[in-house]
Amino acid sequence: MIGYAFMGKAHSHAWRNVGSYFDVPAFEQKVLVGRNSAGAAAAAAKYGWADSSTDWRSVIRREDIDIVDICAPGFLHAEIAVAALAAGKHVLVEKPLANTLAEAESMAAAAREARAGGVQSMVGFNYRRVPALALARELIAEGRIGTVRHVRAAYLQDWLADPESPMSWRLKRETAGSGALGDIASHAIDQVLFLLRDHVTEVSGRTHTFTTHRPGTQGLEEVTVDDAAWATLTLASGAVASVEVSRVATGQKNSLKLEIYGDKGSLVFDLEDLNELRFLDATVPVREQGFRRILVNEPEHPYIDAWWPQGHILGWEHTFTHEIRDFLTAINSGAEPSPSFDDGLAVQRILAAVEESAAAKGALIQLASPVKSPAKSPVTEGA
Amino acid sequence: MIGYAFMGKAHSHAWRNVGSYFDVPAFEQKVLVGRNSAGAAAAAAKYGWADSSTDWRSVIRREDIDIVDICAPGFLHAEIAVAALAAGKHVLVEKPLANTLAEAESMAAAAREARAGGVQSMVGFNYRRVPALALARELIAEGRIGTVRHVRAAYLQDWLADPESPMSWRLKRETAGSGALGDIASHAIDQVLFLLRDHVTEVSGRTHTFTTHRPGTQGLEEVTVDDAAWATLTLASGAVASVEVSRVATGQKNSLKLEIYGDKGSLVFDLEDLNELRFLDATVPVREQGFRRILVNEPEHPYIDAWWPQGHILGWEHTFTHEIRDFLTAINSGAEPSPSFDDGLAVQRILAAVEESAAAKGALIQLASPVKSPAKSPVTEGA
Amino acid sequence: MIGYAFMGKAHSHAWRNVGSYFDVPAFEQKVLVGRNSAGAAAAAAKYGWADSSTDWRSVIRREDIDIVDICAPGFLHAEIAVAALAAGKHVLVEKPLANTLAEAESMAAAAREARAGGVQSMVGFNYRRVPALALARELIAEGRIGTVRHVRAAYLQDWLADPESPMSWRLKRETAGSGALGDIASHAIDQVLFLLRDHVTEVSGRTHTFTTHRPGTQGLEEVTVDDAAWATLTLASGAVASVEVSRVATGQKNSLKLEIYGDKGSLVFDLEDLNELRFLDATVPVREQGFRRILVNEPEHPYIDAWWPQGHILGWEHTFTHEIRDFLTAINSGAEPSPSFDDGLAVQRILAAVEESAAAKGALIQLASPVKSPAKSPVTEGA
Amino acid sequence: MIGYAFMGKAHSHAWRNVGSYFDVPAFEQKVLVGRNSAGAAAAAAKYGWADSSTDWRSVIRREDIDIVDICAPGFLHAEIAVAALAAGKHVLVEKPLANTLAEAESMAAAAREARAGGVQSMVGFNYRRVPALALARELIAEGRIGTVRHVRAAYLQDWLADPESPMSWRLKRETAGSGALGDIASHAIDQVLFLLRDHVTEVSGRTHTFTTHRPGTQGLEEVTVDDAAWATLTLASGAVASVEVSRVATGQKNSLKLEIYGDKGSLVFDLEDLNELRFLDATVPVREQGFRRILVNEPEHPYIDAWWPQGHILGWEHTFTHEIRDFLTAINSGAEPSPSFDDGLAVQRILAAVEESAAAKGALIQLASPVKSPAKSPVTEGA
Q: In this structure, is residue C251 part of a structural domain?
């Protein structure tokens, strides 16, 4: 594993625990790679890795390494992933796939080539492994909400609500690529694609930076990424999705909100209540219709039979446990893990189109059909 | 109508508006009676009554009066009601039926006798006319939640939470009869009887006064009624109901909470969300079970087709509009209005048993079978 | 009053009841006007009007008429309102002000001229009189949420979710003007202006018709209005508002959702819970921050001291009671009622810009400054 | 660790992960003990234990063992715990402390004696380590809700709602001790003591078995434990707590509900939303009072700074991680871990009094003062 900050800590949790809950192939947590030698060594000890290193290049060449899990910052994704795939290692890379569309395209191409040789890859949109969202996808596929007309997707946070909170690398375009768009709109958009098994044909968007300057080490510095963004997406099916993301939505801590409206029913989800799914079945008599709060904690629900009895709620970190489980299972069976780098690329293209539309004052941007449909996921998650 | 304080204002609203929504027999708001001549006259003008009076005795003898609506304080209920029934007037009396069991019994006897002569009577448990609770009763009767095992009933308010709030007649046993028990436990207990169409065979109870002295006109005075009470009730069916009421539940403004657990489903209600009923149907597959929030605002719901399109919520005051509608409809058809004085008496007996048990340190009190079963309500409310 | 359908019934409720709760100048419900003589007569009797008529022109000339309340369909608003103002009658007109921008402009001009002569006018955006929204406006004005960054406004209904529900005049452009846009986006946009006391400078929008043909009397007919719309609005202050409306949001019955995010706090509202306002105060210590559910039912809240004790919730129809109260109070004091026809016109201009942008594939439309700032409302609602 | 069923799995999770989040003394997961040799070996491998055994007696004598974690069934607690303490091992035992009061008393006596020799012990009421409940306790101690008047505690589950669900050892008095009472009322009662730092002086109770016979291996067998129970508790402070527990509350999966009403505020909690605490501060102006939903996920909250950024919710299993952390920290510092066996004994005495009262038809049972006040916890949890 490369990287041991927030995502490295979360992925380590998953690697350390997946085997205690799921029947997965045997593996060892071999080596943790970081830029700082002492830091990497301490993190390796703390998070359950046998060894540590500061040289990812030598690690990915090691014979005893089969899998590379990339939790490094986004600008390093492409170089490491392409090299690791070339070295014949299966690769898991955190989302978003890359900071630029060009990088994402090179990664997707490398992944396609590697796959032909039996080397697997996956992008870490962990919210696909929230049991409630996996259930939502199943219900949609089963036709339980009928034809989807529109989706309201929002990802709201507030960690930049204070205009005095300081400048950081995340607020500069050269290091972060974009702001709320790449960081959290990527999740929201991936969910639209995941839940509807569809692709986007048209995009209109807008971005905004409410706090344009923040205190840096040399006085006020310019913020060069968005802190909020809005978009509408047309899907191939004709459905329309609105997407709204913000890092200044005071009081919203980590609220990925999804509302999916079909002609036979609806689904509503909020990541702050990640064990719950609201489902309205419009085919029951009107007299007894209403949004049901399903506590997605029953053995009948995706991933849950591995855990606790009903009503003992799961934490956010286990979305990664499920991700690793599905990744290992796919590798073992030779199936293509999902979401693929192509799925990650599809999200990047939509993000790029939002920025293009925003630069063109909201003009509608057409998107070409995806290289391959993300709808045909060979691995059924949580099965 | 006799009385023009809180309840008089609410009943007036109902009389003034019922004909604009429901097909009811024609009637006129003839005369409003109050102790204070000027006050009654002003209230009559404000609330839509043609005339006012300070003498209820002469009013109930008037030939042009057919119905007497008693909103006077509880200690006057028995005298007025018995006299009005004797004068051949149909009588609606606010809950609780009376301040003492003896008075309640005399009223119920008078009502039975009057009914034989075609003179009708009704006690104003207005929450039977909350559409969501009327729907709950229907669902239970249809077997949608199966056999009811237990009920959690609570009525929580906080208007006495401040220990400095002053002494009043409501806090003295001689004027108020009891505290939270008679005032709000009466509603909670009536709902248990109404929803389950059952009667109580055993009672265990406890009462408490948290603030024993309050500032009065002559310094600190003793509070001689309860400000909270707890009881468990055994029903003839074997179901058990817990009842908890409080006037010091800080932050709970007017929260009548009902939870009914059956072997095939459950229902949950809170008066602070009076347009909503939560319903869990345990006969659907576990994977999609959950409490549904039914917005009880559809034409298919009790009373609603008279009002607005879906989603336009009704206020608390219309529980009285529905009550008057049902009362007028019953009178017109010759049917027995529900809840009857016997129903009111059944509640009084349970309240008395709670006090008796509390005085006996929680000992279980047996109740005799009701004079007649409250289960056979000849009028289906809201039909 | 002209018109006795849904809005006529609701306005009648307000006229019939306002005097029972509020100190308003004396008035009489003189005459109800409708196209059908028998229907108007029956409605007049039912809703408390002394007389009825089929000829609005003669009615507005009557000496004993001082106020005209226009609940007729939108395409009649302009003609009636301009004539009534010219006849020296105070005019209340239901929202939206008119079906076309040209009509709205003529009405606003007439209203300005009439006002100079002491004749008042008002447009019926009744949700300004929801106590929770009036409280929200006060809190924003007091700086309790600081500088507003962005607003999420949505109005979701589902009465067209069923693709088989039939064609009606509301689904034809020539009769309805627009679809969800004029009908419900008008409310959402008015709230943005009302709450923020600001005006819109830039608009980008999109509209969509999910069900393009519906069964009519002669087979399938084309739906020529939108059933959903999306927009982003830039406000003069720099705030951005997203607006999303739909009539096919299955399970959402009448859900006007408003979320206002400032740098010191936030407010959240849903019309389906119209007695509640959620308020997050970001100036209290983080450890105890959270959205508070304020039950807007206390004497300290706008309009409430006229009603019931705390916790006895108000219904939707009383937004009109408050509206009539404020209208009468303004007329009596000579103050300008709010919202004015200019306020109604401001909303129409934004709606027109949404359609213009939608036709131009999302291009940003600039709006001129309003004739006068809607921010300076001379009447403080609910005071 | 002894036992590897539900609780063994959960405790293992905690031991395996605590060091990755908290600074705790170094330790090793040495040996897992179970009755079945193959089962214990497989569980040891899966859950991270170096070795396994079927002989707890030999294991607790091993020199390299310092801590014994008892997850065996309740009837084994006393024997193992007393032996382990005698062998000088620190002991953690799952709740409830024991199946009988006599056993609990012997354990508490052994723990007191061992403590004098520096050997520590703790009972595993893990819900004391829910961050939201630890925060609730802090707020109460700081006087934020003033003097507590009453508490509503309920623990509702539904896994026995189906009358056809089969007989098991949990439904027999000889193996299970009691039903819902020992299993879940113990948690609810411990929370009352924990949150209020108080002790109980008087108990009145009732128990019931709704389904008296269930299908067993030889036909219908008698259920000899309760499946629901009700109690009221008087606390030394004068506060009154109601407790209601059920295993047949259809639709309630694992709902420990706590409502604490003080004269200056209130707190509400539900285990099904374990990352949330509702707090009403009655000292702010009435106009802005309301229950705040605090997402207890901020670095300022108990235990949270070890985990993820705000809004990334924690799962149920981490209540054990926190428990192990506090246990290890106390051992290391020589402080007395909390809750002690005396705290566990206090709960047992209350449970016994509920049964005694139930047998005496609800009569009030007086409780002696506790051996030592549970209020003086030397370790502040989550500090």
A: yes
